[in-house]
Amino acid sequence: MTEGVLVQKKTNAGESSGEMEEVTLIPKKAIDIKLEADIITPDSFAGKTTEEIGMLSVWQGPKTYPLSDFFEVMGSAGSSAAETLIRIKGDAMRVKRIGEGMSAGKIEIEGSAGMHVGTGMKGGEITVHGDVDSWAGMEMLGGLLHIKGNAGDHVGCAYRGKWHGMKGGRIVIEGSARHQLGGGMDGGEILVGGNVESFCGIRQNGGLIFVKGGALRGLGAEMAGGTIVVGGKIQRFAPAMENKITSGELELIGEFKKFTGDYAISKRAKGALYVSADTNPEL
């Protein structure tokens, strides 16, 4: 299979100046009803004592509870978000909205993470050592979200009823992702080491989606701008794409076909889609 190699650009999106203080969260018990925990951010923890962090409220169903009801809180936060590292030692798949809107600092999750991890994040760095649920990096503006496992649906998307998704930053998925990755994407980069499923890049207006593996169907549907690069097999190709050239501007190893579209929606479409020639000979 032809593989595309994207030149990695150096970024300081996840870096912070000076020494970092660390707050460790250790789950106390199995969580039944999912938690809404948008307070788990360096911005919320900065400048607070261990006791004050433990008293921050999370939602479970219709009620709020102290964070310390669910996690043992250890360590100390920095004086600013940029000086604060949050480490979750254990699985957090039933904890939603971790890192929502964060502007700086770091979050390390030594397990999986629930829905909306990194939603609207503006800066800093989140690393998830397991899988993530749907809506990761939704409407992201900056920073780095690094997922070492697989991702669910709607990574980097616009939320339901909205048209504009991720505008900046970088999402790296070492595994595969499911449906509608990068829906409504306006900017930034999403890099996927594995495969994607249906409607990757739907309504994309800008930014870069790079998929080292293959795609299922609906790739680039309603695409008006931006770039998609696919290194593997596309199972069901969108018929409205038009073939223009067989090489592109990115540094790629191997031969890629370039398509622009989606012309079913607009005759002035400017999006670019790069597809491996070896694994898609019928295109």
From TrEMBL:
Q: Which domain of life is it from?
A: Archaea
The EC number on file is: 1.2.7.12
Pathway membership, UniProt:
One-carbon metabolism; methanogenesis from CO(2); 5,10-methenyl-5,6,7,8-tetrahydromethanopterin from CO(2): step 1/3
Q: Which Gene3D superfamilies match?
A: Glutamate synthase, alpha subunit, C-terminal domain
Which SUPFAM superfamilies does this UniProt record tie to the protein?
Answer: Alpha subunit of glutamate synthase, C-terminal domain
Enumerate the GO terms in the molecular function aspect: formylmethanofuran dehydrogenase activity; transition metal ion binding
| Catalytic activity from the UniProt record | N-formylmethanofuran + 2 oxidized [2Fe-2S]-[ferredoxin] + H2O = methanofuran + 2 reduced [2Fe-2S]-[ferredoxin] + CO2 + H(+)
Question: What's one GO BP annotation on this UniProt entry?
Answer: methanogenesis, from carbon dioxide
- Region of interest: Disordered: 1-21
Q: What class of enzyme is it?
A: oxidoreductase
| PANTHER family to which the protein is assigned, alphabetical | TUNGSTEN FORMYLMETHANOFURAN DEHYDROGENASE, SUBUNIT C (FWDC), TUNGSTEN-CONTAINING FORMYLMETHANOFURAN DEHYDROGENASE 2 SUBUNIT C
Spell out the NCBIfam families in the cross-references: one_C_dehyd_C (TIGR03122)
Q: What is this protein called?
A: formylmethanofuran dehydrogenase
